[in-house]
Amino acid sequence: MTAIVAKLARSFEANSVNLPEVAAPRRMTSGASDRATAAMERYARGDESAFASLYDAVAPRIHTYLVRQTRDRATADDLLQQTLLQMHKKRGTYAAGLPVLPWAFAIARRLYIDECRRRKTDALWSARDVGEDDRLAWTLPDDEVASREAAQLIEAELSRMPSNQRVAFELLKIDGLSHQDAARLLGTTVSAVKLRAFRAYSAIRAVLGRPLEPTAFGKRRRGA
Amino acid sequence: MSHPESSAPEVCTGLTDAELRARVLALTAREPSPTRAQLSLQHLILMCIVMLVPAFVFIAWGGIRIGPRPERLVLQTALGSAVLATGLGIVGVGRGRSMLGRPRSWLLTQVLLTPVLLLGWRILTSSRYPNMMAEWVGRPGLRCLLLTMLLAAAPLLAVLWLRRASDPVHPRLTAAACGAAVGGGTWVLVDLWCPVAYVPHLLLGHVLPLLLLIAVSATLGQRLVAIGKGSPTLARR
Asked: Nearest-5° angle of CA B193, CA B199, CA B200?
């Protein structure tokens, strides 16, 4: 999570004028998407060996998404396992040529939401080990420290903003889903997704636009 | 979430990527799932069997009753309703060109339009013939209501069963759309059976059961159609 947000932060800092283009994520490449679609098609037809290819095409992205959502590797592993098992169970329902990655993301998201509901607490999910970050800050080069601070600002802002804006922003900017796929996944319209992501983006830009005052930053970080 | 009979996967803790991959591959190998061809055949057989139930109920209830209606009116009403019900049913039950199902707006439109269009068509065709909209004493619509529910019960359960654990986005709306689609199909049969086109009768005997079907399937859909809850392979931590 920290690595991804740090990467985002570096992008924000690199060019604050042209933010949307600079922060453009690794788009869901047609290569990965095509590999997943082809593997799923073979698997739906009954080629058992295709599941390994499907796993390789889908799992890394879903795992990254789940780690970012849960902030817990073991839970992300568990949810990834369940997501892939759901796809395995439902392989017979797969219609040839349909995109697989948005489906996988949607299953993972649903399982994550169910997991959150089952735990009935957000405390476990938002736990942070800021102490280690504080220690590391003394040993890192200045730009790395600045990047980490910006990353923490973004992370704090993401955790503060309404969840629909945060999720839309993450799906578009970090997971690289298209507006249409994100809209389908969230069960809303493309315009709504664009608006949510824009609001999230504006909030983050506003936060990064403020000077990083040590006192204020310390307060914000402790509050996050 | 867990399934007592299935070998529910345990919680993954502290696994490397390779171990996790091996574990998932082993789990899928241990739990076979139907291929597309197998599943299509299963669905076809199930639907053929299930459709016998409403056919039997319809015949036992008296089948097509022309009554005082002109045959032309019966034909017009049934054909128009069938076309509407088929079109709306395809939208409601079909998944479209996405594994995530139809967009929310489509499903919502289908759910809302099904009763409105079918009722509108019935009133439109009947109003063009004299005395066809007149009140029938002693026929408030309760028998039509009961017939609709009896005709729709088995197909609705079958459709929801076929769509079980399949919708990760809006399961309740998807199930409601399935209910509207099944209700639309049932409407055609009830139209063939019932000669009454008096509006209060139509509202109580034809529209109300359609709304009930939508409500029941939306309620069941949260449990049956949603991925996650009730899904057979999920681990309980």
From this structure: 100
Which residues in chain B are closer than 8 Å to A102, comparing Cβ atoms?
98-100
DSSP string, B120-184: HHHHHHHHTSTTTT---TT--SHHHHHHHHHHHHHHHHHHHHHTTT-BSS-HHHHHHHHHHHHHH
Apex A167 CA angle, B93 and B225, nearest 5: 25
From B12, B21, B33, residue closest to A59, measured CB to CB: B21
pLDDT at B3 over 80: no
Q: How many domains does chain A have?
A: 1
* Helix %, strand %, coil % of chain A (to 5): 75, 0, 25
Residue B236 sits at the chain A interface (C-beta within 8 Å): no
Q: Residue A188: its chain B contacts at CB < 8 A?
A: 104
- Model pLDDT for residues A48-100, shown as the tens digit of each residue: 889 999 999 999 989 988 988 888 888 888 899 999 999 999 999 998 888 89
A86:B11 CB<8 A? no
Render pLDDT for B12-46 as a digit per residue (tens, 0 to 9). 556 677 888 898 898 888 888 999 999 999 999 99
Least confident window among A5-14, A67-76, A77-86, A156-165: A5-14
Model confidence at A189: pLDDT above 80: yes
Residue of A nearest to B29 (CA): A48
- The ipTM of this complex is 0.79
- Give the model's confidence band at A17: pLDDT under 50 very low, under 70 low, under 90 confident, else very high: very low
For A58, the domain range is 2-223
User: What size, in residues, is chain A?
Assistant: 224
Give the torsion through C-alpha atoms of A96, A98, A99, A100, to 10 deg. -50
Verify whether the Cβ–Cβ distance A92 to B40 is below 8 Å: yes
Judged by CB atoms within 8 Å, which residues 21-60 of A form the interface with B?
44-46, 48, 51-52, 55-56, 59
Which residues of chain A does B95 touch, with a Cβ-Cβ cutoff of 8 Å?
Answer: 95
Mapped onto helix, strand or coil, the DSSP state of residue A212 is coil
Q: Which residues of A touch B103 (CB under 8 A)?
A: 183-184, 189
What CATH number does residue A11 fall under? Answer: 1.10.1740.10
